[in-house]
């Protein structure tokens, strides 16, 4: 029997505010344990939460980034469960009256565009963090009360690849709109997929399980693949899938059920009595909207239309706002959108990857890169030299022209000089010339290579080709002159 997979995703993105959602404590990452805490986020008796307006601003941005409908009124609820890292005994979240609903993102799946629907987006506070050490458990409350945006999809995802594409897209949209850093390593972007399988073509959902503890997109893909295979295996053997939460173990590459006490399904939600309903009116939304930059996918689409580059490249160039800005700024100095798109997505990204740096740390500025392209365009340098010069630019933070004159790297375009070089190469390789005349056309490339080598990469390849062709023709027509 054939099986098909249905995946739903719950994302928690940490909103990029400096202070927590209901108190003025800092959200700084990596501080000593229990430094950023106060009676409010520790849930001491007699204190009242006060909603941080900046959190709402960012939630509005988040909803706009995922094209969701912002509800004029949403309400906070208490989600009750007892766990050591939750000192209040409940988490303030939103339940039936969500902050936003009915959003979507478009993903690329198997070369096709596919719409993934976002069911709801909720505001909530984070819990603390338990640190398990041999026989004891320590708790760090710094994360308690940090603002999260919970994003729940409809079960539109059909494969681990789609799940990863969806996560990438959401992450990009949120980062772009300045909603969250979405840094997975710091836990600023966490996801919990749930997955079920069913006989292909069936419209009844199978029993689902939830995967927790996925710290990277790779882990999401591997975890889902493992769980899908496990479920299909069970069904094939005539066994049942048990609804439960599983912890993914990246080291062991397998998922195991969580201990029973870690699961608390009965949350006994009720309306948070200490907070008034959250009213977000149209003027507020409009005000935030006017500050929101162009969304990532809108920008990618514009790149395709305005600059005529491939959708794939547009996707790469808009993977972060800084990179997209870099690209557009460079085009502002040198109008070759396709050439620059290629260069940035190969050379610039390659270098950033190799050095492990962000674009803002790259010393080769847009005007420098544009200068490099000016030099290629006017024939002063060739592409091969350009790569070398680019590496220097990135190292020294100098413009291309300065490096060219400093290193004497100008391209050889002097015809006489090239003629001499070519004559020399041909007379140094008489056997190859003979074989070339005997019909081995591929040797033409060999001659070009030898001339480029002789010029230490500085010869203008186009001229070399022309002059070489001319010289060979001449020799062929008057073989005695050899
Ligand atoms: Zn606090």
UniProtKB/TrEMBL annotation:
InterPro entries: Asn/Gln-tRNA_amidoTrfase_suB/E (IPR017959), Asn/Gln-tRNA_Trfase_suB/E_cat (IPR006075), Asn/Gln_amidotransferase (IPR018027), Asn/Gln_tRNA_amidoTrase-B-like (IPR003789), GatB (IPR004413), GatB_C_1 (IPR042114), GatB_Yqey_C_2 (IPR023168), Gln-tRNA_amidoTrfase_suB_CS (IPR017958). Residues 325-472 form the Asn/Gln amidotransferase domain. GO terms for biological process: glutaminyl-tRNAGln biosynthesis via transamidation; translation. It is an enzyme of class 6 (ligase). It catalyses: L-glutamyl-tRNA(Gln) + L-glutamine + ATP + H2O = L-glutaminyl-tRNA(Gln) + L-glutamate + ADP + phosphate + H(+); L-aspartyl-tRNA(Asn) + L-glutamine + ATP + H2O = L-asparaginyl-tRNA(Asn) + L-glutamate + ADP + phosphate + 2 H(+). Its EC number is 6.3.5.-. Pfam families: GatB_N, GatB_Yqey. Heterotrimer of A, B and C subunits. Allows the formation of correctly charged Asn-tRNA(Asn) or Gln-tRNA(Gln) through the transamidation of misacylated Asp-tRNA(Asn) or Glu-tRNA(Gln) in organisms which lack either or both of asparaginyl-tRNA or glutaminyl-tRNA synthetases. The reaction takes place in the presence of glutamine and ATP through an activated phospho-Asp-tRNA(Asn) or phospho-Glu-tRNA(Gln). Belongs to the GatB/GatE family. GatB subfamily. This is Aspartyl/glutamyl-tRNA(Asn/Gln) amidotransferase subunit B. The lineage of its organism: Bacteria, Bacteria division TA06.
């Amino acid at each position: 029997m054939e099986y098909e997979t249905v995946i739903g995703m719950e994302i928690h993105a940490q909103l990029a505010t400096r202070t927590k959602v209901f108190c003025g404590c800092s959200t700084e990452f990596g501080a000593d344990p229990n430094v950023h805490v106060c009676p409010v986020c520790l849930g001491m008796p007699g204190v009242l939460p006060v909603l941080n307006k900046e959190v709402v601003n960012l939630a509005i941005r988040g909803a706009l980034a995922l094209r969701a409908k912002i509800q004029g009124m949403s309400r906070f609820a208490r989600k009750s469960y007892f766990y050591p890292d939750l000192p209040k005994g409940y988490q303030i979240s939103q339940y039936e009256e969500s902050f936003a609903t009915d959003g979507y993102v478009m993903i690329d799946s198997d070369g096709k565009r596919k719409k993934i629907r976002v069911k709801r987006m909720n505001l909530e506070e984070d819990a603390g963090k338990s640190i398990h050490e041999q026989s004891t458990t320590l708790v760090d409350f710094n994360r308690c009360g940090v603002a999260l945006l919970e994003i729940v999809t409809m079960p539109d995802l059909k494969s681990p690849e789609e799940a990863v594409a969806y996560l990438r897209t959401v992450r990009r949209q949120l980062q772009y709109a300045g909603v969250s850093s979405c840094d997975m390593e710091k836990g600023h972007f966490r996801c919990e997929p749930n997955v079920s399988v069913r006989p292909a073509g069936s419209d009844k959902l199978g029993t689902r399980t939830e995967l927790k503890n996925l710290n990277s997109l790779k882990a999401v893909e591997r975890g889902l693949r493992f769980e899908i295979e496990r479920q299909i295996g069970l069904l094939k053997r005539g066994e049942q899938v048990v609804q439960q939460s599983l912890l993914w173990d990246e080291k062991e590459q397998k998922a195991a059920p969580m201990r029973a006490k870690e699961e608390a399904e009965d949350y006994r939600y009720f309306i948070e009595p200490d907070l008034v309903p959250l009213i977000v009116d149209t003027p507020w939304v409009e005000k935030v909207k006017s500050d929101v930059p162009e969304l990532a996918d809108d920008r990618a689409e514009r790149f395709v239309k305005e600059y005529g580059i491939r959708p794939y490249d547009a996707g790469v160039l808009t993977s972060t706002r800084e990179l997209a800005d870099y690209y557009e700024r460079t085009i502002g100095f040198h109008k070759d959108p396709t050439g620059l798109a290629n260069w940035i997505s190969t050379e610039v990204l390659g270098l950033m990857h190799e050095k492990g740096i962000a674009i803002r740390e790259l010393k080769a500025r847009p005007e420098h890169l544009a200068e490099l392209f000016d030099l290629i365009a006017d024939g002063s340098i060739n592409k091969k030299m350009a790569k070398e010069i680019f590496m220097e630019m990135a190292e020294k933070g100098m413009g291309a022209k300065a490096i060219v004159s400093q290193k004497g790297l100008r391209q050889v375009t002097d015809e006489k000089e090239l003629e001499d070089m070519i004559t020399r190469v041909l007379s140094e390789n008489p056997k190859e010339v003979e074989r070339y005349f005997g019909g081995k056309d591929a040797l033409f490339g060999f001659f070009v290579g030898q001339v480029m080598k002789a010029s230490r990469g500085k010869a203008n390849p186009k001229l070399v080709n022309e002059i070489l062709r001319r010289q060979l023709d001449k020799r062929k027509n008057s073989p005695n002159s050899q």
